[in-house]
Amino acid sequence: MKKYINKITISAFACLFLFAIHSCSDEYLEEVDRYSIDSESYFNSEDDYYNALVGAYDLLQSTYLNVILGEIASDNTLAGGESATDVTSWQQIDEMIHTPVNSELKNLWDWMYAGVNRANFILEFQDKTDFDGKEVILGETHFLRAYYYFELVKWFGPIPLKETRFELGDETIIPRSPVTDVYALIEADLTYAIENLSYTAPQTGRATKGSAQALLGKAYLYQEKFTEAAEVFDDLIANGPYQLVEDYDAIFENDTENNIESVFEVQYSDAEGAGFECLECSEGNVAVGFNGIRNYSGPVFESGFSFNVPTQEVVDEFEDGDLRKDVAILDIVAWAATYDATYTEGYNHTGYYNRKYLPREGDLNTGDQNLTNPNNYRAIRFADVLLMAAEAYNRGGISDSQAQVYLNRVRERAFGEANDVTSTGTTLTAAIAHERRVELVGEGHRFFDLVRTGRGAEIDGFTAGKNEVFPIPIEEIQFSNGNWEQNANY
Fold first, then answer.
1. Residue 202 carries which DSSP code?
2. What are the φ/ψ torsions at residue 7 (nearest 5 degrees)?
3. For position 41, what pLDDT does the model report?
4. Residue 38: predicted pLDDT
5. Vertex 334, ends 328 and 337: CA angle to 5°?
6. Element (H, E) at 425
7. Are 317 and 274 in contact (CB under 8 A)?
8. What pLDDT is recorded for position 37?
9. What three-state secondary structure class fits 309?
10. Cα 322 to Cα 429: distance, rounded to the nearest angstrom
């Protein structure tokens, strides 16, 4: 978890990707078998639990993929890159022509289930050894399992569900659980975390009571449990330590990470190198280099691969006077003219870049600079919490006036002065959706916001009854030997 928690290497975690374990080398299979036999000899001390917790946190860094694909799949950005065949799996998702044969969806599935399995490993042996503060480690573990399962259910719908470690052969006997069952476990995990964590983390970057409350409210919102969502958001807003930072521009700079607006951040570091052969091994935010300006030479920023380029449509979504626009969107043509910078136009070039997560000058970028950027991912911000609370109050028919209060707190910062929305009903619903788009652009939420509110058809190429979820990777269907059916129409 960045520099705040020392990294560990546990060979037991080397090949815990669910069911994809079939594709591991014989050497790794031998290591896993040997470790499984001896697993009961672990968890004999506080250090053992702590080290296993670090391993469970580690897979959060691979969610760079979830973030960038959540934008590319939406109407916010185009895939970009060097050409139409540059990372073909991303191009297919951008055009909504992806199939079960998609290496990036396979990675997302594997990496999230690796996180689940690491959390399950701890919980399977949670009663083995007692020590002061164990409830905090277990609370964080429940949060992490909920986080990974939430990512899986929103991407793939019904999924295999288990509360102990997945093992070879489970794929042929464990069914894909209904979405309602997955959410029930997520809710239970987060309730446990809320009850056992405080608002102050033991170390920067670790989950807190506030992190768990925010994710629980979000899980309720995705299920349209609006009353429950409003209640948990109200408690968090009233009793948590979070506030909007005064300057929106300060949120996304490296020296302002983990600030008072941060409810949960994925920690990244540029101090350790990485390579393309194992992107999930990078301690840096891989998405940042992929977002970067192609062949850039000039001040402030560093070069990158020109993926995930914002569309003119999302640029035009910003209202006149919105101070967020120039923070969120880099107009490369205007920038180059002003600062005598040069660059190369990539595929799908729109003239715009995701400025929030562009590589900056001055980072160590150990090894390949495009893979080791230190920019944290602001997974849950207080502004997001306020907007989710506004949505719950409005769409749940609870109180449009309270929805306006939460919405207008975000707008006041955006415009530097009061710029209140006074509408009600469906007009207010649209205003909240607009605000989520411009406030959170580039942060990976847009596709799921559209789908969960029944607006997926606004995405070019989207097919209703199909593209609300993504296909289960073909390898997993094959491994299940007929136990699992593919998602509809894939």
1. S
2. -75, 150
3. 85
4. 54
5. 140
6. helix 425-440
7. no
8. 38
9. strand
10. 20
| CB atoms near residue 161 (< 10 Å) | 18
Query: Any residues with CB less than 8 A from the CB of 83 and at least 6 apart, and which?
Result: 347
Listed residue (87, 91, 144, 117) closest to 20, CA to CA: 117
For the chain, how many residues are written?
Answer: 490
Question: What is the pLDDT, as a whole number, of residue 374?
Answer: 95
> 204-222: b or e for each residue (b if 16 or more CB lie within 10 Å)?
ebbbbbbbbbbbbbbbbbb
Tokens of 109: 């599935």
- 3-state helix, strand, coil split of the chain in percent (to 5) is 50, 5, 40
Q: At 143, list the tokens.
A: 């949060």
Rg (CA), the chain: 22
Q: Which helix (H) or strand (E) holds 124?
A: helix 103-124
Q: Note the pLDDT of residue 272.
A: 87
Low-confidence ranges of the chain (pLDDT < 50): 1-37
What CA–CA distance (Å, rounded) separates 458 from 100?
A: 23
For residue 176, give the DSSP letter. Answer: E
- Residue 422 burial class via C-beta count within 10 angstroms: exposed 0-12, middle 13-18, buried 19 and up: exposed
Token duo for residue 299: 């001040």
Angle of helix 134-156 relative to helix 46-58, nearest 10 degrees? 20
Residue found by looking up tokens 């499984």 in the block:
36
Q: Is the distance from CB of 373 to CB of 61 less than 8 angstroms?
A: no
Chain centroid to CA 392: how far? 21
Tokens for 457, please give them.
């058809």
Cα torsion through 375, 70, 277, 149, rounded to 10? 100
Which tokens is 407 given?
């919405």
The DSSP code for 468 is: T
Residue 355 to residue 288: CA distance in whole angstroms: 10
Q: Give the angle 228-146-99 at the CA atoms, nearest 5°.
A: 105
Residue found by looking up tokens 């070879």 in the block: 168
How many Å apart are CA 5 and CA 137, to the nearest integer? 14
Hey, which bits of 114-201 come out as E strands? 159-160, 176-177
Rounded to 10 deg, the angle between the 209-222 and 134-156 helix axes is: 30
* Rounded Cα–Cα distance for residues 405 and 399 (Å): 10
Supply 282's token pair. Answer: 């990078």
Token reading at 376: 């944290």
Contact predicate 214/236, CB 8 Å:
yes
The secondary structure element, H or E, covering residue 33 is: helix 26-38
Q: pLDDT tens digits, residue range 438-449?
A: 999 999 999 999
268 touches 2 (CB < 8 A): yes
Q: What is the pLDDT of residue 202?
A: 95
Residue with tokens 């964590």: 197
